[in-house]
Amino acid sequence: MTAPQLDLYYWTTPNGHKITMFLEEAALPYTIIPVNIGKGDQFKPEFLEIAPNNRIPALVDHAPKSGDKPVSIFESGAILLYLAEKTGQFLSSFLNARYEAIQWVFWQMGGLGPMAGQNHHFSNYAPEKIPYAIDRYVNETNRLYGVLNKRLADRDFIAGEYSIADMACYPWIVPYKNQGQNIDDFPHLKRWLTAIEQRPATQRAYAKAKEVNPDFGQPTIRTDEERKLLFGQTASVVK
């Protein structure tokens, strides 16, 4: 087996799963470096060197195609694009199909992820339940589910062939119950979700999550300190 040339700085969140899904699909050897965000690992200087926004995931490629010095990348969408270009997989070389996938990656990064994230926060983690905030984000998540359901009405995957667009979106749909959504209301999305769940690479990626974090699937916030680390940050943490 080829020695791993990729270091993945990872924790068991939707954005982390995106990258393990790609790496497992592409059969690329990689080393996981856990970044336990509940313990504050994301603020360690060595992590901030490659991820200045103190968020996972981040990637270091010690053998880039250029043959130059190692490349480090943060932001999950950028990592997916990088890996697709590095391997020539899961992103078409044909212009129209390529941008079909890329625009849906941007859709997830700018819409589905942030809106579902705020949904999770106000519905599940906020110490004060604010009805307006909960309704705002549950409803917007619902709208976005509708957009994706319509997109999938006449195709198997978001850009036709399985691509980085599917890997970007899938982990954010998996916790639909926590987002206050009834997946049966979105039959095309439900079919797509099941198809990706059954892929061997997806199963391997989510098994990795359980290996790295035995508490995966349990509530993320269990203590006031964890709440402060995840939700109480100001500019002081990046000085």
Which regions have little confidence, pLDDT < 50, spanning 5+ residues? none
| CATH-defined fold name of the largest domain | Glutaredoxin
- Domain module tally: 2
Q: What's the pLDDT, averaged over the residues? A: 93
Radius of gyration computed on alpha carbons = 18 Å
The portion of residues forming beta strands comes to 5-15%
Task: Report the major sheet.
Answer: 4 strands, mixed
Element-level helix/strand string: EHEHEEHHHHHHH
Discrete helix count: 9
Q: Total strand count, please? A: 4
Structural class: alpha+beta
Query: Whole-Å distance between the termini?
Result: 41 Å
Choose one word for the global shape: globular
Query: So, CATH architecture of the largest domain?
Result: 3-Layer(aba) Sandwich
Say what oligomer this is. single chain
* Percent helix range: 40-55%
Strand order of the largest sheet: 2-1-3-4
- Which CATH first-tier class of the largest domain would you pick? Alpha Beta
CATH superfamily of the largest domain: Glutaredoxin
Outline the secondary-structure elements.
Blueprint: E1 6-10, H1 14-26, E2 30-34, H2 45-48, E3 58-61, E4 71-74, H3 76-87, H4 95-125, H5 131-151, H6 164-173, H7 187-197, H8 200-212, H9 224-231
Parallel strand pairs: 1-2
Antiparallel strand pairs: 1-3, 3-4
Helix pairs in contact: 1-3, 1-6, 1-8, 4-5, 4-6, 5-7
What labels describe this entry?
single chain; 239 residues; alpha+beta; Glutaredoxin; Glutathione S-transferase Yfyf (Class Pi), Chain A, domain 2; four-stranded mixed beta sheet; 9 helices; 8% strand; oxidoreductase activity; oxidoreductase; GST-like protein; Glutathione_S-Trfase; EC 1.8.4.-
